[in-house]
Amino acid sequence: MSHTATPRTPRFGANYTPTQGWFHHWLDFDIDAVRADLDSIARLGLDHVRVFPLWPLFQPNRTLIRPRAVEQLVALANAAAERGLDVNVDGLQGHLSSFDFLPAWTQTWHRRNLFTDPDVVAGQEEYLRTLAAALADRPNFLGMTIGNEINQFSHDPHPDPDRITHTQAEAWLERMLAACEAGAPGRFHLHAEYDAAWYQDGHPFTPGQAARLGGATAVHSWVFNGTAQRHGRTGTATEHHAAYLIELAKAWHTDPHRPVWLQEVGAPAPHIPAEHAAHFTAATIANALDCEDVWGVTWWCSHDVSRELADFPELEYSLGLLTNDRAVKPAGETIARVVEEWRGRTYRPAPRTTALVLDTDPVTAPDRSVCAPGGAFFEAWASLTAQGVRPAVVLAEHAHDTARLAARGITATVTPEEVD
User: Fold this and answer.
1) What is the separation, in whole angstroms, between the first and last Cα of the chain?
2) What is the C-alpha separation between 326 and 370, in angstroms, rounded?
3) Which tens digits make up the pLDDT trace of 79-128?
4) Which among 295, 299, 396 has a CA at the least distance from the CA of 347?
5) Alpha-carbon distance 369 to 202, whole Å?
């Protein structure tokens, strides 16, 4: 089997954070404000947005999916289309910027497990199917993401998790993806977890699920997870963190050229100070696009959160490519320049011929903390990268599979113990 990566044109987008009312804007939906926001995003040259209905507002009762809310989502998608923007929709919100948004019919007196209760799961299926079906005939509708980092509800450190096994997590993902497909057949449906799926021992959502289920593998890269604290704002591990997650994900792929979507990445202060955000943005994108089979990069986020809104973690107020009054920030200028440089180009990075071997169970990956910042595997990958090696990642059980290695262009392997 030969190495036959397909040249790609990378996609560039933003996670849309409305300037008026943040995601509470669904309560006072103003299509003119949305259009102005989307105008400012489109002026950066971006080609897509990821948007976030708030689940409790769209489905306040298990058998009530509000038609007006669905109409507003379609109106947003139509406004995006008018500006040349494709749309991905996250369904189960779920969790956003430190706040949980769960409908009352899953909480307190009606407390039921989000992932295993038959009535809750059936309600989620109908909700996702309804949203997908409402957008199925829109040419700019990319597809559904099941929800934003909903895996955080399943395990520590959530203060009140709905605990499940990895087999229950997989069954839930399969049902939710099937519901999206039923609503909008043939679209680009996927799921997305925060990095506990890659880094946390025993977490029920696993790398294998991310790498096998859905139309692409999504990774969310945040260097406030210990990476920047340990390696500094310009450290190799910091500027290559997104690339590391992309390569780590590929170790579990059964299709050697399955697309990977860098669906969330941002420059969080104070770990990345404001005056260094542009440099970090440019370095992160360049390093991510030095990986093969990257579908695209979607920055978090489009606009800063308004200081009029209370109780957000401090970093959340400054993550935008644009200010809350839609002025372009240095990171936004950087994104616009990168987009212009890539316009009309296809790319196929040179294969990563050396792979770092990860010795873990391929199904449950019980010892994932070795892959986290400070873990032996993470630090070995960063060390190789600092030496200019451009390492891939391969599971130990595949390290001697010559056909699999050849399909990825890998000609040599090295273990963490062998890394200087």
Assistant:
1) 32
2) 41
3) 999 999 999 999 999 999 999 999 999 999 999 999 999 999 999 999 99
4) 295
5) 9
Q: What is the 8-class DSSP label of residue 303?
A: B
pTM of the model: 0.96
The rounded distance, in Å, linking the Cα atoms of 332 and 323 is 10
Q: What is the DSSP letter of 388?
A: T
Q: Residues spanned by CATH 3.20.20.80 within the chain?
A: 11-342
**392 DSSP β-pair partners:** 355
Q: At what angle do helices 166-183 and 118-135 cross, to 10 degrees?
A: 30
The residues, any chain, with a CB within 8 Å of residue 204's CB and separated by 6 or more, are 151, 154, 155, 163, 164, 165, 166, 168, 169
Question: Looking up tokens 């696993």, which residue turns up?
Answer: 206
Among positive and negative, which fits the CA dihedral 258, 264, 269, 274?
A: positive
- Residue 405: both structure tokens together: 């290695």
Partners of 417 in the β-ladder = none
CATH number belonging to the domain at 11-342, selected among 1.10.10.1760, 2.60.40.420, 3.20.20.80, 3.40.1190.20: 3.20.20.80
The full length of the chain comes to 420
| Owner of token pair 């890998």 | 410
- What's the token pair of residue 33? 């404000």
With helix as H, strand as E and coil as C, how does 327-348 read?
Answer: CECHHHHHHHHHHHHHCCCCEC
Spacing of C-alpha 399 from chain mean position? 28
Determine the 3-state secondary structure of 42 from DSSP: helix
DSSP 355: E
What are the tens digits of pLDDT across the range 351-371? 999 999 999 998 999 999 999
Partnered with residue 64 across adjacent β-strands are 61
Q: Treating both helix axes as pointing N-terminal to C-terminal, what angle do 277-288 and 241-250 enclose, rounded to 10 degrees?
A: 20
